[in-house]
């Protein structure tokens, strides 16, 4: 790798082409330690993941960001379909891609998950011996209690699940796809309800850098998924970064509590707001320094040969 460069890369996941950007480490010698990064619900790689990848590369890591299936430049139909299980598969495929590169040390691979991607990182790492360490930042962690708090009650979660299953049955029978906006200022039937999330994503949509659509059948996949069982299987070193102003703090504490790894740290970052971890340079800087310190202590020394 040539330090500091960003290269467009592709790899396969479950028969679909995944498109990503690989940021080369700015210093060090090959093979380099590497980090695969997965972002928030409905994210595209140019958003928060790229800001973390740029900083990780400046601190000596190869950093891979990518569009998961159904979004951005990656393949997969229907478009704008949120499927947590597919994202976990894509993240494991990203680990395979990195582990097979001559310029990456396969013994020093890590995962970074941001927001809902934190739970996906826990799931991918729990069952993959190649992953040496995990960092989870401002995680939107998933269990029934968290979903009920997110949407406003168990009945609201059940309604979303039923809606998704109905849309999925329609798609499987007719090929027709029902869509709603992914975010909206006032509508409650969108993929990610709430004015706060709208205020962030809509700016990307207005610039043509993010597609504000959500396949309704996503609800069948999204609300059949939980991340607590993955946390309970995770034996890898885990750094969890969260705060009182991040998504559902109690869910973060529940997930951290069940992780059986003896080597885990919960970095509670005061009153830092959830979205500051997406694009606030000062917050991302200090978070990345904590992540790099964690990875440096747990990925071990570099190997001189594969």
How does this model look, in words?
- The strands form 2 sheets. The chain has an 8-stranded mixed β-sheet, sandwiched between helices.
- It is globular, with a radius of gyration of 18 Å.
- Helix 9 links the parallel strand 9 and strand 10.
- The two termini are 15 Å apart.
- It is of the alpha/beta class.
- The protein has helices at 48-58, 84-99, 116-126, 144-151, 154-174, 195-206, 218-222, 228-231, 249-258, 276-279, 281-298, and strands spanning 6-13, 16-23, 32-38, 62-66, 104-114, 131-137, 179-180, 214-215, 238-242, 264-268.
- The chain has 11 helices and 10 strands.
- The protein has a single domain, classed as Alpha/Beta hydrolase fold, catalytic domain (Rossmann fold), CATH 3.40.50.1820.
- The mean pLDDT is 96.
């Amino acid at each position: 790798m040539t330090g500091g460069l960003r290269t467009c890369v592709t790899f396969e996941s479950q028969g679909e082409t995944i498109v990503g950007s690989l940021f080369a480490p700015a210093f060090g010698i090959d093979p380099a330690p590497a980090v695969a990064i997965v972002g928030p619900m409905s994210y595209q790689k140019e958003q928060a993941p790229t800001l973390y990848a740029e900083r990780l590369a400046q601190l000596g890591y190869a950093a891979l960001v990518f569009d998961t299936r159904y979004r951005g430049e990656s393949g997969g139909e229907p478009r704008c379909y949120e499927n947590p299980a597919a994202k976990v598969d894509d993240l494991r495929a990203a680990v395979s891609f990195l582990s097979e590169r001559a310029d990456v040390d396969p013994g020093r691979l890590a995962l970074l998950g941001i927001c809902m991607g934190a739970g996906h990182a826990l799931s991918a790492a729990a069952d993959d011996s190649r992953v040496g360490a995990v960092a989870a930042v401002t995680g939107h962690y998933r269990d029934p209690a968290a979903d009920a708090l997110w949407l406003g009650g168990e009945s609201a979660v059940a309604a979303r699940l039923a809606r998704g299953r109905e849309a999925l049955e329609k798609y499987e029978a007719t090929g027709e796809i029902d869509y709603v906006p992914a975010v909206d200022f006032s509508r409650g039937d969108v993929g990610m309800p709430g004015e706060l999330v709208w205020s962030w994503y809509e700016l990307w949509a207005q610039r043509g850098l993010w597609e504000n659509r959500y396949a309704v059948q996503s609800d069948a996949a999204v609300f059949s998924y939980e991340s607590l069982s993955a946390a309970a299987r995770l034996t890898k070193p885990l750094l969890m970064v969260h705060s009182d102003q991040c998504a559902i703090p109690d869910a973060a504490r529940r997930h951290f509590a069940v992780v059986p790894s003896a080597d885990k740290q919960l970095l509670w970052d005061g009153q830092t707001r959830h979205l500051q971890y997406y694009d606030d340079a000062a917050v991302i800087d200090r978070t990345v320094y904590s992540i790099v310190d964690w990875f440096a202590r747990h990925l071990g020394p570099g190997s001189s040969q594969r």
